Amino acid sequence: MTKIAVLGAGSWGSVLASMLADNGHAVELYGNRQEVADEINQKHSNSRYMKDWSMNSKVHATLDLAEALAGSDIILFVLPTSAIRSVAKQVKAILDQSGSKPYLVSATKGIEPGSKKLVTQIFRDELYPDNSDLMIVLSGPSHAENVAQKDLTAITLASTSLDNAAKMQRIFSNEYVRFYTSNDPVGVQVGGAVKNVIAIAAGMLAGMGYGDNAKAALMTRGLAEITRLGVAFGGQPWTFSGLSGIGDLIVTCTSVNSRNWRAGYQLGQGQKLADVLANMGQVVEGATTVKAVHEICDKYSLDMPISEAIYHVLYEGADIKSEIKLMMNRQMGPEIRI
Ligand SMILES: NC(=O)C1=CN([C@@H]2O[C@H](COP(=O)(O)OP(=O)(O)OC[C@H]3O[C@@H](n4cnc5c(N)ncnc54)[C@H](OP(=O)(O)O)[C@@H]3O)[C@@H](O)[C@H]2O)C=CC1
Ligand SMILES: O=C(CO)COP(=O)(O)O
Questions:
Q1: Domain that holds residue 322
Q2: Where, by residue number, does sn-glycerol 3-phosphate bind (predicted)?
Q3: Cα(104)–Cα(73) distance, rounded to whole angstroms?
């Protein structure tokens, strides 16, 4: 039996914790809300983040990080990107005392503004400066709501060590979630992070009444932007035609389960960003990652007009219709730039 500490008792953390307990592993779920932990331990549900769902009764929730980490073989991070660095620092202090070196798996999808770093780069800063092989990225088209219902799902596990990705594949897989391995953690993380920005744009188009052609154009040109940034970061171009690239882009741009899509939809209907984020009650990663993408475009002179338009609308008061007009009137050129 593998001992797994899942950090983040929101929607995805709870569902992954329950799935891993279904697979027969011992799971400790670390959260930051006493009422959520009490409900998980006493009623085996998490109604704040996952309505009408019963989780595996063997999952134990705690607000004590040291208790969650004790004896763990794997630490699965399912926190918002904004919390990764501070929690990683706390994890480091606890691991230093025990001397253990568990695998670090990240299910978080985002890029940290300021540092412009991916989650595994934050792990290197704060936890294991010399051992990327112990870091594995879990990413793909996987809304928590669907996995909770045991709907069929396929997800990528990526690591610089394919052996370690394959170890996680054996631990995570079951009859309803199929995991594939990859040796491109950078490309997999960029796909998972930047698709959230494109999903906000997809929601905006829907909220403004644009149709299927607009959605398809946005997703295709969005994938070109994701690939451009991913390759600039050192990712492999073919990763973006996989589950963590186009796969996750499809599900996030077309599903009402997506918080990023729903945020975009509400913005497209004229609501204010602050109200949309406050009412969501859950993380909208694209709204933060777009800041990092803007900084990356600036620093590396990358051409990412859709992502930049979302940044202008969210943080510079630009009007969505004017941004669309600007994009439609950009200098014309070839579809593929090599
Ligand atoms: N939901 C999904 O379907 C999927 C989500 N993901 C990714 O997983 C990550 C988490 O998303 P998700 O679970 O949906 O988000 P939620 O908003 O549902 O939950 C996040 C949880 O983390 C908690 N949290 C925030 N900061 C801390 C902290 N410092 N210490 C402990 N807990 C903290 C939040 O608490 P509070 O509410 O108090 O802030 C909340 O309980 C994101 O990067 C997301 O992109 C990936 C695939 C699927
Ligand atoms: O990453 C996800 C599905 O794969 C979840 O997307 P949202 O954060 O937009 O809900």
A1: 186-328
A2: 109, 140, 142, 195, 248, 258-260
A3: 9
